[in-house]
What we know:
The complex is a heterodimer of chains A (about 210) and B (about 625). Chain A is built from 9 helices and 5 strands. Chain A is an alpha/beta fold and about 210 residues long. In chain A, helix 3 links the parallel strand 3 and strand 4. Chain A starts with 8 loop residues before the first strand and ends in a 7-residue tail after the last helix. With about 625 residues, chain B is of the alpha/beta class. Helices cover about 50% and strands about 15% of the residues of chain B. Chain B starts with 8 loop residues before the first helix and ends in a 5-residue tail after the last strand. Chains A and B meet through helix 1 of A and helix 13 and helix 14 of B.
Amino acid sequence: MPGVPTSELVVIVDDDAAIRDSLRLLFQAEGYATLSFASADEILAAARGLPPALLLLDVRMPGRSGMQLLPEILATAPQLAVAIITGHGDVPMAVRAIQLGAFDLIEKPFNEEYLLKAVRDGLEIARRRHEEQQARAAAAAAISRLSAREREILDQIVGGATSKTIAYELGISVRTVEVHRRSILLKTQVRSVPELVRLALQARGTPGAGTG
Amino acid sequence: MTGGAPRSRPAWALVPLVAVLAGLGAWSGLGAKLDLLTLDQLMRVHRKEAPADILLVAIDEPSLVQFGRWPWPRSLHARLVERLSAAGARAIGLQLILAEPDALRPGDDARLAAAVGAAPVVLPIHPVVLPSRPTASEVLPLPELAAGAALGHVESPLDRDGLLRRLYLWAGAGEAFWPHLALAMLRLGGEAHLARGITPTGEDPPWTAGWVREMPQIVPFHGPPDHFRTLSYRDALADDAALAPVRGSYVLVGMTASGLGDSWPTPVSAGRRPMPGIEVSANLLAGLRAGTLVRELTGPAVSAFTTLSVLLAALGAARLRNLAAAMVLMPPLVIAASLVALRLGIWFPPLWAALGVAAVLMLLQLLRRRAEAAAAAQETLAREARLRRLEAELEHSARLGMVGQVSAAIAHELNQPLAALQAYAAACRRQLRRVDADPALEELLGKITGQADRVATILQRMRALFEQGREPELVAQNVDEVVAEAVQLALLGRRGRPLDLDLDLSARLPPVPMDRIQIQQVIVNLVRNAVEAMRDVPQPKLTVRTRLESDEQVAISVRDVGAGIDPAMRERLFEPFASDKAQGMGMGLYVSRAIIEAHHGHLAFAPAEGAGTVFHIVLPLGGKV
Lengths: 212, 625
């Protein structure tokens, strides 16, 4: 299993060097790790390889704007939480940013507390997303260990069927179903049926693992 | 009135003025000759058969040959009167001067007096108007002759052109006492009732010194001289058979031989010999009897008639579309009307009426032209005023928009360092805490951040001030119209080299939602930039084109043939305060792009093929806004 990041990472994308520099100093003083990029295209190229992090994305930059690239960045690197930085935030822009997947909109010049709170929130979101992602990967891995018969029975369980029904459906004895069930719980390391269902659903949500 | 409605009332007052002037002209007698020419022509055309019961007995050349030199012995006349009377003449007009007694043959006078006394004879009274004397007198026949005869005057007044056209039914010295010889004959012949209405009213006018005339009458010429039945004096005396037509007829006796006086040039004697006095009288007599006398309108009546016809023509013509045709047709129509009137027995001199009608039509035409020109001028003025208003509107909104855009740009530009400043200060505070520094330092830092916050607040307020109404108001517009108008506005009042403008409009574009004024502001800006870029080009050419770019977009392009954009400028062209012009802030393109982006469109430029630069505006057709 991949390790949890040792220090929390804040990624700054702004064409203004002074902004990049000052934010880097501020976040480092707060104990965060930082990475800076001068354009939206640069971050897009690097996004996939980044650990979970908060991304501060300036809207107004030469070339493609932050808003334009936001959907692409999120699709490439779901482990990132993105906050938009703008010189003039209005309601329509905020709505659009949220719709495109940003979790917040931060106005320049910065309100220190708001900025730091947003960073904390964003990192929390990134962490949670990362965890979910990992849980999903773990669930998928667990389910991949099941035999074909066991997976068949798991599907029935997720569909809400009782052992009796499953036995009838598959033409086997109730006792055999019970044996498989125990084996499934053992292999997936969960203790109850509800947990098992959640795991199965989680695994399906993982790209390439389920039917969608 | 219809058509080009009159705008200036004072000008229309000219119409009655013209009518009144024409009336006065008719009264003045100016141009009367032309009127007479017309009348003469009409008379010549208007021939009538001479009545058979009016007979002329002519003292002609053969008679002179037979009876010798004039004057003849009056016994000859006495015999003639006796013979005519015996043959049954209704009345005899002896149109000879019989004023002095015959000293050689006194018996002859008595004999003629006897013959006259026994027959229905009218003797003439001649006017004597001497230029040297203010008064006029009458030459009467010998008293013994006059005693037994009816009397009638034979004045033959000539018009200024020397032609005899009119006779006066009544005339006399000091008082219009005497009927014309023809009228006297009519009375004598027992047909006075035919002349009813033409006898004087009976009122006694004051006696005047000169020759007085009343009731002028245009002589109703029946034809040229020698038109009436004529009998030679010689034959009347010798040949009984020749006297057959005398029965029941009016007979006029007088000179016809040339050289004996009493012959008059008339309108109908053109190219022929003058008309003998007796034939003139015969014509009048025939007219009197037939009731075909022509009443002549004179003085005030002609004036009134002329004025009226001009007014009527003006009224009629005001409703006409084609005044030029009326100008050609109406004056001859007036003359034709006067011909009809002549047939009906009224002579109305048409010249002034025709002139007046022509003048009034010209005036109407002139007024109409002027009204049309005024209307056209007003339209042009209105169009120019509209353009100017549009320009002012655009200018105003552009300036306002510019202020807003500039302040937004300033705010954005200041925001960047301000944001950095705040972040640096925040970082600094944390560093200070970590090294456990003097609390006074942190306090100072707090003051720095406080001032930075203050600047931020000011910027925010500034932006809020101009942000209102910056959102474009999107209304579906005809792109071609918007573009054409903006180009016109941009080039308004342009001086310098003539510009080759190629306005290549698509004409098939769907309406596009836009803020008309904002988009026009952009186009005006691009066109002015293009013109500016071509300042040193010998043959400047501006191409503005509209096209349907795709199912979702229209493109407007503005192309110049200038030197192109400096490569060093290209990067920063749309940035605020980027300008290579001596004047100007360099905000035009920055603001233009902001406007186009607010419309969810694009503004871009590229080097044009050949030379110069082309700017493209791409606007979405709508749907997603």
